[in-house]
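Researcher: Next entry in the queue.
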Amino acid sequence: MISNSVTLRAIIIGLILIIPNSYFSVQTYTPTSMSLVYTVIFNLIILIILNLPLKKFLPKWALSQGELLTIYVMLSLSTVISGLDMIQVLGQLLGHAFWFATPENEWQELFFRYIPKWLAVDDKNILEGYYKGDSSFFTTENIKVWLVPILSWSAFLLMLMFIMLMINVIIRKQWTEREKLSYPIIQLPFIMTEDGGYSRLFTNRLLWMGFAVAGGIDLINGLHYLIPAIPMLPIRNIEIGRYFTNKPFSAIGWTPVCFFPFAVGLTFFMPLSLSFSCWFFYLFWKVQLVFASIVGLENLAGFPYAYYKPQASGGYIGVGLLAIFSLRRHIAAVIKKVFTGKGTLNDEMEPMRYRWAVLGLIIGAGLLIAFCLKAGMSLWIILLFFAIYFTLSIAITRMRAELGPPVNELYHIGPDLIIPQVFGTRRVGESNLTMFAFFWGFNRSNRCHPMPHQLEGFKLAEQIKMNYKRLFYAMLLATFIGTLAAFFFYYDVNYKYGNSGWAGFEAFRRLQQFLYYHPGRENSAVVLMGVGFAVVFILTILRTRFIWWPLHPVAYPLASSLNWTMSWIWACIFISWAAKFLILKYGGLKAYRKAIPFFIGLVLGDYMVGGFWNIIGVVFHKYTYTFWH
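Model: Structure for this entry, 629 residues:
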């Protein structure tokens, strides 16, 4: 039986909360890059606290679990849009080239003629306030110049996310109901909101023990930033790579050992074999670097990144293609349903009929292609770019649904880099490469990727029998309002405080190198992509053939983020894996279930107390303790 949990008041509350949440999120940088975004959980906890007296004294007015989860889904979608790897990067690109162009870097001669005027701002008088601060975005002159680029890129992002939503409508039944993927990330909000938040969870002592551990660490370290005399707890100060100074072992590079309570807590919900695979493959990548140094690959230009990034690219493409291949029978059934109306596939209870989802997919793709053609891109590049992009998007979504890592990162792993490596920059062309620089705004690291959050929302709906169709429209509203709010708040904040343009330098300096040196096809990168694809393919076969096989193919590319994310959390994953392994081995399933509140407490303590310090930083515009990184 379908419940009416997606109520009008839940949607209204969600839309209202998007506004302050987006304003806060555009200022918080790395904490928005987590799989379970802390600002959303912070808001959810506040709602639960406010809901408790209503639940007790005015139960008819209290929010139900479905309403709380509707708000959670809406806030999640809006937050990733305003997060680190979306608006906070894209927003920097729209005026960067014109502000930082000099006679020395020759940007004007190299690529200004390829930048569509309707996608960028070239007026330095308008840009001065953005980069120097102490100004206001909301003036007639600023709005007049910025409005067309903001609306153009908003339309582009909305088309992109609409296509993702159509894909999720089509694949939902296969992954959620038939394969029954575990979706570890959403287990915490689901447990928190049981019975409208009036749950036994919050009376469990182990929950508060975990909260005290994580919150205590954040409290002490936060006070240290304000009062240096208070000693700081060294949870991220150990770096073992510096002890390996001689070749070949010096090739392992930066290898920190950190303790992030939220990462330990979230990993506890991952399947045991998957958490094992993550830390195992992280160390395996380090061993690969040592071996590469022994055989002389250290002389490869750009080592070590030029060694493991192409492998990771091939690995993620392999994950995406294998995920699509596993959907072949379901997709065939969908096509049969769309064109003949026959078959055993029932789409009455889906977010929308499959025929409308396919039509929406076609219309969205057509609009996306038209946008890129108007921007000066070649048709074959557009088709290839988005074929790779959506393959990677499906890979990320599958990884989140099956693996549920605390953070996922695909830095320098995207079609904007893969295509020039495979075809060479001359064949790609200057106009396409220029647009690739702007596409860095949604391609940089893919930590804030909307597609997994959309599918996780449908999974939550399936768990408590929410109305899919209503949730679908709530998602569309949240995406629309969240995109506009993120853009306008982003520029409002930066006109007040200024911007360094760090992401713009990443994008346009690479474009400068492409157009100045015109590097050709990178044969070594192509070979390494093939190696990464082959490893994932072989691991998939082994996991399919042998039930006992412990290594998961998705973890191979996931663990390749050696220069940032996985290096930060590999030790946390190991700690959580070891704890879960020992609990299950010596206490069984009963002990595991009893331990869950403690690990939820680790997440909540980190998010609430760490979030408090972030609020202090935003309100007073002062650098405070950041619990992530």
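Model: Residues 92-183+222-443+466-598 form one domain.
Researcher: Noted, moving on.
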